[in-house]
Structure of Flagellar L-ring protein:
Amino acid sequence: MGKYWLYLSMAIILTGCATAQQTGEKIADNAQKKVDNSQRQVTTSTDDHSPVPNDPFYAPVDPAPKPKHVIPTGSAFNPSTSTSLYSYEPAYSVGDTVTVVLTESASAQKSATTDMSHNNDYNLDPITVPGGKLTVNGNTVELGMKQSQNFDGKANSAQSHTLSGKITVSVIDVLNNGNLVVRGEKWLVINNGKEYIRLTGIIRPKDVTEGNTVDSSQVADARIEFSGTGDQANTQTQGWLSRLFNGSLWPF
């Protein structure tokens, strides 16, 4: 009888340990689960033709809360926050900031020339019939046609731009491979107008320098906008009638 109670007690203890271990694993999994920031962000931006400051699309991201319950793994090191002794590669999380150094420069030149010519010339001697030339009301019947077409087209295009400066962006997501999805904007008020810089893209932590900066040429899938609003920007925009004459629907 005593052995029966001993075996029953051991079974109850083992069952409780297994339940506690499963519960602890669930807590650890939920605590270490990656937070989906896409639901916490506005996925659409304002119209590019009428940008406004404080666009929710470019707003900073609040960092996810730190896990409260984490089961010890037996190691004092966390691979997600570890650093190398031989190279500088900091660990970033959602909400951190990175400064992007803008060093964009590009130039393009294109020219095309088209020359086409087409000539047609048909002549028919006076029509003769037995007895002489064919006449109508005393006029000799003759046929002839001459046609000429010429087309000459030339096109030249040249474009160049240079952009330099700095903009600090926020980390909105950390991909599974460790790359950082960044996004941000910067507004400047100058006289009667406003100028803004917007940037989105993906950067590698290993490309970030010790000064927490990265070159814009190392930003993948980069979208950089540099424009403005106000009187100065409006003077560089065509009116509706000019756009009609220069549009593709104008037949001439």
